[in-house]
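Q: Got a minute? One more chain.
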Amino acid sequence: MPMNIAIDGPVGAGKSSIADHVARRLNILHLDTGAMYRAFGLYALRSGVDLASEEALSALVEKVDVQVEYADGAQRTLLFGEDVSDLIRTGEVSAAASAVSKWPAVRRRMVRAQQEMAARADMLIDGRDIGTVVLKDSPCKIYLTAASEERARRRYVQQLAKGDNTPFDQVLRELIARDEQDMNRKTDPLRQAEDAVLVDSTNMTEEETVEAIVKIVEEVYGKQ
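A: Always. Here it is, folded:
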């Protein structure tokens, strides 16, 4: 059986970057599922579809072509063959991803693809329903979080580096709203799996967080 590691947590917890480092340490693949939902969110925005219409989005998701490939040790997300890895990191696309991901048909399509990938190879998958849905039978589950103000600060710094001058107060409001939406959606809401280990990185450096998660993995699977 492949070694499958699940990492869940709210927006801004650093899941993607932490998961990248952990996967490299373990020499396994890292699948950023949030990027898949973001790519579909971008497609929905480009298509002009009503993000509140379950019927429209359920039909649209059957047409989308989202692929994941790995180049130079990093995941690249492709939308109909176009590399959208950078385009999907804007606030607008983030909000669209949260909106489209609440619909059952969208989640079923993405979850099926994720499970098929995990069945073929050792893989670390991060997202918001990995330990509870995608890899619910994995023996190694982590819930990575941090205080909302710290998560907003990290997001604010990231956006500034990209030339996005959105005020911190707005970043914090949007993050709290995203938490509310993700945790209260009807289909596969964000929550900590009962058997997941909690890692609160509020007062931890990125390196300390990586070390904590690698230790958890080694306790389950042994040293790699």
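A: Residues 117 and 154 are 30 Å apart (CA to CA).
Q: Perfect, thanks.
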